[in-house]
Structures are given as structure tokens and as C-alpha cells.
Amino acid sequence: MNATTWGALSEPNRLRIVELLRGQPLPVGEIAARLLMRQPQVSKHLKVLSHAGLVQSRPVAQKHVYELQPQPFEDLELWLNTFRPTWSARMDALEAHLRNVKAAQKGKPGSKSR
Amino acid sequence: MNATTWGALSEPNRLRIVELLRGQPLPVGEIAARLLMRQPQVSKHLKVLSHAGLVQSRPVAQKHVYELQPQPFEDLELWLNTFRPTWSARMDALEAHLRNVKAAQKGKPGSKSR
DNA sequence: TTAATATATGCCTTGACAGGAATATTCCTG
DNA sequence: CAGGAATATTCCTGTCAAGGCATATATTAA
Fold it and tell me: Mean pLDDT throughout B23-37?
């Protein structure tokens, strides 16, 4: 997982753009209009998003229609999954701990498992 | 999904810290040593991560052991899932398109579905 | 309390980045 | 080709954030 993706999404307006494009591909002007932003800033943000591989544009007449790209999102998904073992491991540890406590209670009430 | 989480992970060193803590909770000094960073910077980064709810510290003697928190990761997971309909919808559209093409070929070869 | 260890904070400087406004560029239409 | 529409780029400015370094704070131990 590279930091570029996170950086691209760390800017509020860029995040809004991504969430808007989640619905459907849109040309620059539409994005600017819907998000009440100025066209140049939208173009700049799209440049960053594009550089991060999050969006891609396709020309339609003079318009540039921007569309989300699945790849980075899949990468994020994969990255997130690498954390799952962490949580499960801790769950297991907790579970084992609870089992010990229970066993200790049964065996000699009032004592504590080391 | 709030932009704070993204911001916290958009800094390369912070991302490294998170990935390091994925293995196990660690005190500040250890983090600094393993990532070859200076202690003050590590503390600052941990402050940001902590503020974003990504980590939490627990005192052990003079040491502060930092540990990942699952919540934000679950939020990320949820957020990512909101994009799934987008991809499937496009898959469906593509599928439908292909079906049309195929039907058109069968019906009148050489024509094009509008 | 003092010394030592571990961490947090404060200040400073520098670089990156976002918005504003003007302008350049590209593409379509007549 | 001229004009217009849509988008990209440039320059400028202010703000924010990260690293370096010194120092404050907290906790333990003697």
C-alpha cells in the first residue's frame, strides 16, 4: 500500500469528488457545479486523483468525463485485510484469558491466573 | 468516512508506524528504534494517529505502549463497501452490453446496437 | 529527594499544498 | 478559420505540517 493513495483521499474536497463519482462518471464542469467548487480547483484535484490512479478521464467532445478506477480500492481492501489477523489474534488471546479466568474460578476461587 | 483518518495515514512514516504496530503493540522507543526515527517525531506522529483514533496508549512503568484500534479500520472497510455497487453496476452494464452485441450479431450481422 | 529513563512539548525553519484569478489549450461547431 | 465552450495550466499568496533540536514532564528506583 503506498501513501499516495491515502494522500489523494486526505483532502476533503477530493474525498467529496470521489464519493460523487461513486454514483456515476461525470465531466469536470458537472463536478464543479454539484460540489460548488471552481473549475480550476476541480481540475487540479482531478489531476492528483488521476496521478494516484483513482480516476481516469475519457474525452467526450470537449468534455472530459472522469470515472473511478477499481484497482486502488481493491488494493485498499487487500491492505485492510492484512490487519485482520491482528484483531483475531487479540480476540483469541482474550478468549484464552477468559477461559483461564473461568478455570481458575472453578479451581480455587479468589486466586488469579498468572 | 472522515478525512482525518485518511490524513493520518497519508504521511509515509505514520503509515510505517501503523504497519509496524499491526504486528504487536510497542512502546515509543521501540518504534523509533525499529523505524530509525527520532523519538520526538515518533511521539508527534503517534499523537496524530491517536487523535484519529487509530492507536491508543497504555502506560507500563515509564513506557507508553501504543496499540492499534480496530474501529477506524472497520469504518474504512464499511466505506470501501459503499463502492462495491458501483463496480457491480458497471459489470452489469458491461454484461448487458455484451449480451446486446451478441444478440445483434445473431439477428443482423454488421449492424450496431445504438 | 536525586538521578535516570522514557516520553511529550515548544520553537524554529523549510517545503508542500490549496485556493484565487488570469490565461493558455483543446476541441467542437458554423 | 472564427468563435465559443470546456478544461488545463500558471503564478501568486497564505497556511499548515514535518523534521531538528532543546527542553519540559512523568515515572521509576536508589
Answer: 97
Owner of C-alpha cell 503509515: B15
Contacts of A50 (CB under 8 A, 6+ apart): A56, A57, A66
Residue B105 has pLDDT above 80, yes or no: no
Inter-chain touch B3–A10, beta carbons under 8 Å: yes
Burial class (CB in 10 A: 0-12, 13-18, 19+), A98: exposed
Q: What is the DSSP letter of B84?
A: H
SS3 A28: helix
State the Cα torsion A30-A31-A34-A38 to the nearest 10°.
-100
Q: Which residues touch strand D (CB under 7 A)?
A: A 27-30, 32, 39-40, 42-44, 46-47, 57, 62-64; B 11, 13-14, 37-38, 40-41, 44-45, 48, 59, 61-62
Going from the C-alpha of A15 to that of each of A54, A68, A77, B75, the distances in angstroms are 11, 12, 17, 15
Mark B25-54 as b/e (b = at least 16 C-beta within 10 Å): bbbbebbbeeeeeeeeebeebbebbeebeb
- B44 is near strand C: CB distance < 7 Å: yes
Q: What is the pLDDT of residues A60-113, one digit of tens each?
A: 999 999 999 999 999 999 999 999 888 877 777 777 766 777 666 665 544 433
Mean pLDDT value across residues B91-96: 71
Helices within A10-109 (DSSP H only): 12-21, 28-35, 39-51, 70-81, 84-107
